[in-house]
Design a protein that fits this description.
3-stranded mixed β-sheet, globular, 96 residues
């Protein structure tokens, strides 16, 4: 996405079967995430973002520093077990 000042803004797209309409979230931790309903035409995302460009730019101004992607302190990917290196859907129980 191209902002009004010419800056290229990267964003992530998530598909969520429970979502009924396009949702845009801007956060310090994740940057900009666009959540779309299942079956939504991804080719329409630039049009939607263009319609919301002013709101997106106002939301980005709330953060004085460029958003960095979240990285866990221990270097593991989300859902990865420290013991086995395998992915899991649940966190390890305390003391495990």
């Amino acid at each position: 996405m191209l902002l009004n000042d010419g800056t290229e803004l990267a964003f992530r797209v998530r598909e969520d079967p429970r979502t009924r309409r396009v949702r845009i979230v801007v956060s310090r931790r994740d940057g900009m995430v666009v959540t779309i309903p299942r079956g939504f035409d991804r080719g329409r995302i630039p049009e939607v973002l263009g319609q919301k460009r002013d709101w997106i730019e106002r939301a980005l101004r709330r953060f004085p520093v460029k958003p960095e992607p979240y990285r866990p302190r221990n270097g593991l990917r989300c859902g990865q077990s420290a013991k086995s290196g395998r992915s899991s859907t649940r966190p390890d129980p305390p003391g495990a």
